[in-house]
Design brief:
By secondary structure, the chain is mostly helical. It contains one helix and no strands.
Length: 73
């Protein structure tokens, strides 16, 4: 994409934004590399299957009923 900007403060602003974008892009690349290394280093049995539901057929979470506050706002 080509954008024409006037020399001065507008050009400085755009140059700063481009520099920040390049820094962000490099950081994302590093994060991806570390994530891939973690995945490769993880043992096969660890985290490969979802956790089993709690015994008794009950699911976790909050109860299905709740009371509203009786005070008015």
């Amino acid at each position: 994409m080509t954008v024409h900007v006037k020399p001065g403060s507008e050009l400085q602003k755009v140059a700063g934004e481009v520099a920040n974008y390049r820094l962000f892009k490099a950081m994302v690349g590093e994060i991806i590399q570390v994530s891939e290394q973690i995945c490769e280093a993880r043992p096969v049995g660890e985290g490969s299957a979802p956790a089993a539901p709690p015994a008794g057929g009950q699911r976790g979470g909050s109860s299905g009923t709740s009371r509203r506050s009786s005070r008015r706002r």
